[in-house]
Amino acid sequence: MAQMNEELLETKYNGNVFARLFAYVKPHIKVMILALILVLTVTGIDLVKPVLIGNAIDKYIEGYDTPYVQVPADQAQVTLRQTGLSKDAAAGPDARYARLIYFEEEYFLVRDLEQEDLAAVNDWEKAGYPGTEKLQLYGSPTVDTLSFSVNGKDLMADEMSRDELALLRSSDRTGITRIALIYACLLIIGFFLQRWQSWLLQKTGQSIIFTIRQEVFTHVHSLPLRFFDTNPVGRIVTRVTNDVESLNQMYTQVLVRLISNTVLIIGYAVVMISINPRLALISFLFLPIVFGMTLFFRIQIRRIYRIVRTKISGLNTFLSENISGMKLIQLFAREKTKSDEFRERTDDLYRSQMKEMMIFGCFRPGLSFLANIAYALIIYRSGVSVLEGTLTLGTLYIFTNYIRSFFEPIQELAEQFSTLQNAMASAEKIFTVLDEKNTIEEPENPVPLRDFRGKIEFRNVWFAYENEDYVLKDVSFVIRPGERVAFVGATGAGKSSILNLIGRYYDIQKGEILIDDVNIRDLSLEELRGAIGQVQQDVFIFTGDIRSNIRLLNDDIPDEKIRAAAEAANADHFIHQLPAGFDEPVTERGSTLSAGERQLLSFARTLAFDPKILVLDEATANIDTETEQLIQEALETLMQGRTSILVAHRLSTIQHADEILVMHKGRIRERGTHQQLLAMNGIYKKLYELQQ
């Protein structure tokens, strides 16, 4: 039931998440454009690299069958066996050619070929060297000459030694070296460009995440107490930490990689179509299935991500509550019950995450399976084309490399899609918090309080926390400057609500509340709350030291004022006994301090800010008699010149108030001094007698 309520509290965001996320990129748009240019450059390098290797295979490695023009020695690139040879020389109609033949793992050179003989030699090779005969020199155990016939001509090809072959193919070696150097340069350039763009994206992403985290934290601080009444601490912490962090990868990798992978897919498709449209179409046959799977995956994963984020939030809320209340759990020996409840929640989260894994477990192998089928078909079809002589080996390499690379960005896109969906789910949660409106609106032109006196007036005030379930009903009273007024009554009578309304932590539904005859709706919240010092029954102590808990990060308060406030609140008695004095470390919630010490520290904190109005909400309820005497002594001095409002169940602490207002079911039933109220023989006297 609790988990169901948590999920109901998670409202669904209906805005354009992506557009709103992109708004955070605008201040960094130049850097992002530069990073995008770098990514596209690296993508272009990735497209060029297979082409370089393919050209090296066709032109230089497998290019042994390129004919050489026979030229005079002074025009030759290579002179071999008294024959000048050149690949680049202009060939006239009577030119003669030489050509290498690769037969049974040996190279042979045939010379004195005419133009029409070249095509015939090519056909003869493809036909499997028919009519070929090996001739050996007398007494030589090795093949020396290859005899064959083409176009009715008897031709002889001389076997090439290793040195002769190296000399003849020196230009091919130079070409391979040149391509290898270009390839190495591209690798180095690509490495540095990729490192540069990665650094830019990481830096920009962290800057954006910092901005979002600050915005969420600042906005949470600006929200009214009503928001915290309905939202557990664990859920808010999840928004500021886990959900914001899940956006990091989206900004640092996903957005730019989405663009680069899209460019890669388009680039691979264009190049494959230009190389061999038939093979490209075979590859594209699987694209509709891939896109269909991706669409289905996107819908399913986004739904499951929303559920997972909600359950993580609920689990964090559970942990926050139980760790904070660990003393109570152990006090009532509820460890096993809470452990069982935690196991139930983690099992629920585990099942949701397993559904997520099942979706990934089907999607990723499915894409990989389709990619491998396409790759196998392409290998078969292109291999046949090579055997048929319609496709070169280099082109085969380029195409098979592209087809494998073609599906890799598609798989990456799908995985980035999942990261994007996770980020979208987290962004929805974050924007839901950011869209929470502060119902306590600041006035456009606040009225300044120049000569602050501290007069407080309630005029026919009606207030309800929810709908029309009024906690205060037609409450009216006036507290004059410097006066001490106490509110008493049973639990739920509305005493603490009055204190919350004076600081405008909630807004009333009817009536007016005035400070120095000015409606508090017309006052600046900062100025209003800065004038009110409130000491509550439950004191919150921050992690840090004694000094920082009194100052509360307000550097305008000097150390001298901190010491004076501690002395006035009688807190210096225990502070001086601490090993480090004002620099004594304090843990979260002040667990190393007693309840009385925390309360004294709270008094010192309030006095350090020198408020004009002093509000004490059951300030002496949780302390011992000795500490209460210290506080009572301090209060007599502190209340001088300040409007003071006290709420107390212990009537002995407010007997000297200038006026006591008795609350009952949201209304003021009695008012007067202690003696006057006793004489009325009403609610106050009954409360007093019960305590006596």
Explain how this protein is built.
- A hairpin with a 5-residue loop joins strand 9 (456-464) and strand 10 (470-479).
- By secondary structure, this protein is α+β, with helices and mostly antiparallel strands.
- The relative contact order is 0.08.
- Helix 11 (287-324) packs antiparallel against helix 13.
- The longest helix is centred in the middle third of the chain and has 54 residues, at 335-388.
- Residues 1-9 have low confidence and may be disordered.
- It has an eight-stranded antiparallel beta sheet with strand order 2-3-1-4-5-8-7-6, sandwiched between helices. It has a six-stranded mixed beta sheet with strand order 14-17-18-11-19-20, sandwiched between helices.
- Among the domains are: 2-50 and 194-312 and 350-434, ABC transporter type 1, transmembrane domain (ABC transporter transmembrane region fold, Up-down Bundle); 62-168, no CATH class.
- It contains 23 helices and 20 strands.
